[in-house]
Amino acid sequence: MVAVGTLAVVVWYLGIGPFLDGIRAVDRAALLVGAGIGVLTTFCCAWRWTTVAHGLGLRLSFPAAVAACYRSVFLNLTLPGGVVGDVHRGVSHGRTVRDVGLALRAVAWERTAGQVVEAVVTVAVLVALPSPVRPSTPLVVGVLVAVVIAVALLARARPGQGHSRWARVRRAIAGDVRGALLTRRAWVIVLASLLIVMGHAITFVVAARTAGADAPLSELFPLALLAMLAMVLPSVAGWGPREGATAWAFAAAGLGADLGVATAVVYGVMVFVASIPGALVLVAAWVPRATIAEAGGAADA
């Protein structure tokens, strides 16, 4: 409902003109760049996911992870909520390894690790470069440091041997953090997350240039990271918080809310086209089942 409300407010305040401008601005070069960057970010997501899954003792091949990540992105961009694809890949993987709960936790920790790295990068950029939220940066830094300290203390904690539900949850969280995140291969999670953040930010800058923004990179890069933070919120097939955040950020930076919405639309089209291989993965998984069902029906007849 919040995503729908945000989108409705943007349309009511700015009209549909910026949305149409964004659609008209999309060109072949932008789509090709978006698809190329999408390959990099999807492979990095699969790399990060396999690292976390292996840390939790789950088997997961890299090719299967790549296919599942493509499918996940496509579902996130076509279904309400923005996380349906991640839940789907967690459940599918869990059925394969016969432990849906642990597989869902692996996806949750993989996404959480990526968002933590993204938050750290965003804060660092906001401190170094001017942005609309720079006055609030000290508060954001304080919250981020508190979260990091809490995670570190949780990982070192010894929950004891209680049998209550809370004790079991604490043991599970502490074990997951130690096994999946704070391992010798933690550098893989950090590196993959950095590459994903940079890939998304570059895609946003390309979208802004395609929409007509001529601001310097030092001004567009913080806006890209702010928009990416908003994309973490629940959305309607990717729409809603992204357009609201870019409209506000571009207006606060003096670039105009209209240009911000047009940039968000171009970005949305770019990432959707880049996710189309996920639709092919869905079709490839459905066709064998349909063929088997038809064969079974013929045999019964």
Salient structural properties:
13 helices; 301 residues; disordered C terminus; mainly alpha; globular
> N- to C-terminal separation?
49 Å
The helix fraction, in percent, is: over 70%
Count of DSSP H/I helices: 13
Which descriptor suits the 3D outline?
Answer: globular
- Tell me the number of strands: 0
| C-alpha-based Rg, rounded | 21 Å
Query: Tell me about the biggest sheet?
Result: none
Structural class: mainly alpha
Would you list the SSEs in sequence order as H and E? HHHHHHHHHHHHH
Oligomer: single chain
Uncertain residue ranges? 291-301
Mean pLDDT: 84
Number of domains: 1
Amount of beta strand? under 5%
Description:
The protein has helices spanning 2-14, 17-25, 28-55, 62-78, 84-97, 100-128, 137-156, 165-181, 186-211, 217-230, 241-252, 257-274, 276-300. It is mainly α and 301 residues long. The chain has one domain (2-300). α6 (100-128) packs across α9 (186-211). The chain is globular. Mean pLDDT is 84; it is low at 291-301.
Briefly characterize the structure.
Helix content is 80%, strand content 0%.
Topology:
Layout: H1 2-14, H2 17-25, H3 28-55, H4 62-78, H5 84-97, H6 100-128, H7 137-156, H8 165-181, H9 186-211, H10 217-230, H11 241-252, H12 257-274, H13 276-300
Helix pairs in contact: 1-11, 2-12, 3-4, 3-6, 3-8, 3-9, 3-12, 4-5, 4-13, 5-6, 6-7, 6-8, 6-9, 6-10, 7-8, 9-10, 9-12, 10-11, 11-12
